[in-house]
Fold:
Amino acid sequence: MPMTPPERTPGFISVIIPTLDEEQNIVSLLGDLQRARRLEVIVADGGSRDRTVARARDMGARVITTRPGRARQMNRGAAAARGRSLFFVHADSRLPAGFDDLLRRALGAQGVAAAAFRLRIDAPGVGLRFIEFWANLRSRALQMPYGDQGLCLSVALFENLGGFPALPIMEDFELVRRLRARGRVVVLPAAIRTSPRRWLNVGVGRTTLINQAIVCAYLTGVPPRKLTRFYRRSRGIG
Structure:
């Protein structure tokens, strides 16, 4: 798989993966990416203390290191990208076969600003199927996919919008809100599989309530730094 395509080559996709201690997940995702074509892989690491960086380099990814913060990491990765399209994807995701061609076709359609995938949580359970159902319904009806569904858009549009806003939380939500004003945000029928860890660590019901509370508070103007403190306390982080 080419890792250093010529600058801004038509058809090339720059895949940007923000990481922080993702040694257990990064290899599987990079394996999916190695089966694709005409793309480069950039791992934007926020200071991992495990073997995330070493594993990424061993599998041919470009690694950029920066201070932690998902928005900062993804913006740094985008600044180093050589493709004409950017695909932001979480390290604990698994990609559907042919994802690269699906994204190219979606972005090539008239009036499309960005594309994402349908959500599939990679574990059994009725509660998780319920989460999937509502997440996918929301994504299609409101054109509001979240970061764990991946997000692909052109470099030109990303730069025009100023990249991900410098927020400690909700950066993907806010970028998608801005994208909707520029065109359709398409949710593809193929599913991206995401780790169930954030639901299982705290509980499906509790995680759902936390997420919805944060979205509602953000929309009513609660400062993102307060939301970040609430999120960390509610999940027992720090």
Remarks:
- The first strand starts at residue 9 and ends at 19.
